[in-house]
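ok trying this again, last paste got cut off
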Amino acid sequence: MHKIKEALGRIEQRQLTNIQANNIQHYEIRVFSQWGEDGIIQFLINNIAIENRVFVEFGVQNYTESNTRFLLINNNWSGLVIDGSKKNIEYIKRDPIYWQYNLNAVNKFITKENINQIILDNGIKAEIGILSVDIDGNDYWVWDAIDCISPAIVIVEYNSRFGPKEAVTVPYDENFTRSSVHHSMIYYGASLNAFCKLAAKKGYTFIGCNSAGNNAFFVLSGLKPENIQELTPEEGFIAAQFRESRDSSGKLAYLSREEELKVLSELPLIKIN
């Protein structure tokens, strides 16, 4: 509780000093999120009229580190979390939050063919508050397929190694797992520009990325407040500084940017028109 109270104090202070409202990174606070997403989300929900305070997040692992856990605990939202690991879902169901809050955890390996049915089977449809997509693989194809919900805010993990200009994604494979497709663990997902193109097609505005350079934020265009600026992929792009590449034995390789690009240049990508 002390951690949450301290975070709330910092969030309130940053909300008051909103001189950088056009830069969502100004509001970053980490409570349960991997980076600063908790603070950005608090800023957004305090500036966007959201009637249905429901979230859907997938790729949550055991949910101790996620984009929506703080929403669940601090704001009393309800929602659905999905993960492909049975062990992770069992862990979530043993967590006290599972009876303390209105949370549903489902063990499913997500594909573009099953995602809508999974969401509908859990009683969620139409307008919701937040969709958070992070499956380290078919992220572009799965978001493209989702049509049973209309989230006010969408958070997607992009692969910054593809840069700000190229609109590319890995080819769709319903069995895609980045650990098995290539040992480097850096071949997955889609570029920021690919997600921006998809977002525009779906009626969303790109408003920026977190400072870690892996999560992009989109707001339903009709709900975007005036104090939040629309950005182009080039304006909002942040290159990730973390180094997660692996060698063929599975150990961290700490590849340079140039070395990562060489690995990716030898692997197939789909260009998005």
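PB: full thing came through this time. The two ends are 48 Å apart (CA to CA).
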